[in-house]
Design brief:
Blueprint (H helix, E strand, L loop, with lengths): L4 H7 L5 H17 L4 E3 L3 E3 L5 H7 L2 H9 L8 H4 L5 E3 L16 H16 L24 E2 L2 H11 L8 H10 L1 E3 L13 E5 L6 H15 L4 E4 L7 H15 L16 H5 L6 E5 L1 H11 L10 E4 L6 H11 L9 E6 L1 H10 L1 H8 L2 E4 L3 H4 L8 E4 L2 H11 L2 E4 L2 H10 L8
Parallel strand pairs: 2-3, 2-4, 6-7, 6-8, 9-10, 9-12, 10-11, 12-13
Antiparallel strand pairs: 1-5
C-alpha cells in the first residue's frame, strides 16, 4: 500500500500511540482488501459501546477499545490523542431516560453514562442515532465517509451520493483517529455503477410498498447494486429510508439507483455506465406478494401486544403522521407502543406537543437505541406489529417473537384494538 508522508508519520508513531495503532490497523485492513492507498475522510460514524463482561475482564475503557476497536493487545489512550476526523456515535444500547422499562439494570445504565463521557472526552459527537443525517450530519455528494450501520450506509451512498463502505468497529475507530480509510469498494467510481435492473410494474405508493420493494430488491441482488426503474411517483425521505433499510436487511445492499431521483444517475444508461445489466428483474403483483409473505412469515397470532415504530429512527414528519392517527385515542390495555427517534428530534416533538399526544394515548417516545440493537422488548410480549421491514426481519430471530409488517395506519389500529387487521391490498 502506498502511504503519503502524513500517513507514514502516523504509522511511525509521531502523532501518538493510539494513532499509530489505528494506522497500523488500516494498513493491514487495506492490504487484505487489495486497496492500493488510503483516502482522506472527515466524516466517520461508529459504534463504540462497552459491554459489562468485557469491562469486567479488561478493567478500563482504554483497554477495551484497544482490544476490540484497534486490535491492539497494548493498551493505548484513545481520549489522549482524540479523534482527527469529525466523528459521531451511532446508536447505544438503551435510552438514558427509559432504561428501566427497557429492562436494563442500574449497573448497565451507569456504565452507559461513563461510556458516553469517555467518548465525548475523545471528541466523539454523541448523536446516538442510526439516522445522523436527520440531526445535522449530512455528507455531500462525493464526500468520502467511513460509516457503520447498514441503513445509514445505503442512505448516504444512494440518496446523498456520499461514499462509504459498511465499516466495522475496528475500521471506523481507526478512521476516527487518523482521518483515513482504505480506498476500495464504494469509494471507487466503477463500483458504484448499477448491476441489476428491476422494472417496477405495480404501484409503489406508501411506506409499506417501499419496504416491500426494498426487501425484494435485497433478496434478489444480495450485495450488488440494483437500479429501480419505472417509479411513477416521487418518494420522500421516509420512503427511501425504509426502502434502503429493507434492502440492506434482506440482502446487504449498500447502494442503489433510482434514475432521476437518487444522486448519481439521471437515466438507466447512466446508472449502468453504458454496460448491460447482469440481470433484468421485475417487481409486479406476484413479487410484491412474495415480499409481503416473507416479512410476515413469523406471524400467526392476531393478538398484538407490542407496536414499534422508528427503525431506522423516525423523522419528525413520521412522528407527526403517527400523532395524527393516534390523537384522542387510547392504546388497548394489553398493547405497548414504543416509538424511536433521534434525541434531538424528541426535543422538537416535546415542544410541538407530539410527545404529549403519544403519552396521553399510553405510548412512549424513546431515543438513542432500538429493540434489535439493544436486544430488549417489553416484558412478556409475544406478537409485534411494525411498519419497519428491517425490524420485522431481525427481531423475531433475535427475541423469538412473531412480527406483523404493514402500514403505519394498520399498526396504529393494532395498537388501539390489540388486533392485527392488516393485509396486502
Amino acid at each position: 500500500m502506498r502511504l503519503t508522508d502524513d500517513e507514514k508519520a502516523m504509522l511511525d508513531g509521531k502523532e501518538g500511540r493510539a494513532r499509530q495503532k489505528a494506522m497500523d490497523l488500516l494498513v493491514r485492513y487495506g492490504e487484505a482488501l487489495g486497496a492500493e492507498r488510503l483516502v482522506d475522510t472527515n466524516n466517520v460514524g461508529g459504534f463504540m459501546v462497552a459491554k459489562k463482561h468485557h469491562m469486567d475482564e479488561l478493567g478500563s475503557f482504554d483497554a477495551l477499545f484497544s482490544e476490540f476497536n484497534l486490535d491492539s493487545s497494548e493498551v493505548v489512550e484513545f481520549a489522549k490523542d482524540k479523534v482527527k476526523a469529525f466523528s459521531c456515535q451511532f446508536e447505544t444500547t438503551m435510552d438514558p431516560e427509559f432504561w428501566e422499562i427497557q429492562g436494563k439494570s442500574q449497573e448497565d445504565y451507569e456504565l452507559m453514562l461513563a461510556n458516553e463521557k469517555y467518548l465525548a472526552s475523545g471528541g466523539v459527537a454523541l448523536m446516538c442515532t442510526c439516522t445522523p443525517y436527520l440531526v445535522g450530519n449530512v455528507p455531500i455528494k462525493g464526500e468520502h465517509c467511513a460509516w457503520m450501520e447498514s441503513s445509514a450506509v445505503v442512505y448516504i451512498n444512494s440518496v446523498l451520493g456520499a461514499r462509504t463502505n459498511a465499516e466495522g468497529n475496528s475500521s471506523s475507530t481507526a478512521a476516527m483517529l487518523t482521518g483515513k480509510i482504505p480506498y476500495w469498494g464504494f469509494h471507487i467510481d466503477e463500483n458504484r455503477l448499477g448491476t441489476h435492473l428491476i422494472d417496477v410494474e405495480c404501484a409503489v405508493e406508501n411506506q409499506m410498498d417501499w419496504g416491500l420493494l426494498g426487501y425484494y430488491a435485497g433478496t434478489m441482488v444480495k450485495e450488488r447494486v440494483p437500479i429501480i426503474n419505472g417509479i411513477k411517483k416521487l418518494p420522500n425521505l421516509i420512503k427511501l429510508k425504509q426502502f434502503g433499510a429493507a434492502a440492506a436487511s434482506s440482502g446487504g445492499v449498500e447502494m442503489y439507483h433510482i434514475p432521476g431521483i437518487t444522486a448519481e444517475a439521471r437515466t438507466v444508461e447512466e446508472a449502468l455506465g453504458n454496460r448491460q445489466p447482469v440481470e433484468r428483474l421485475r417487481f409486479g403483483k406476484e413479487e410484491r406478494q412474495m415480499a409481503y409473505e416473507a416479512l410476515n412469515s413469523t406471524a400467526k397470532d392476531t393478538n398484538v401486544d407490542f407496536v414499534m415504530f422508528g427503525c431506522p429512527h423516525a423523522s419528525i414528519e413520521e412522528i407527526w403522521e403517527i400523532c395524527k392517527l393516534l390523537e384522542g385515542k387510547r392504546l388497548h390495555e394489553n398493547t405497548v407502543l414504543w416509538i424511536f427517534t433521534p434525541r434531538g428530534l424528541r426535543e422538537i416533538a416535546d415542544r410541538n406537543g407530539f410527545t404529549k399526544i403519544i403519552n396521553d394515548a399510553g405510548g412512549v417516545l424513546m431515543s438513542d437505541t432500538c429493540p434489535a440493537l439493544g436486544q430488549f422488548i417489553p416484558k412478556g410480549i409475544k406478537v409485534m406489529a411494525t411498519n419497519s421491514g428491517k425490524q420485522a426481519h431481525y427481531l423475531p430471530n433475535i427475541k423469538g417473537i412473531q412480527a406483523w409488517y404493514g402500514t403505519t395506519e394498520e399498526c396504529i389500529d393494532a395498537a388501539v384494538t390489540g388486533q392485527w387487521r392488516g393485509g396486502l391490498k
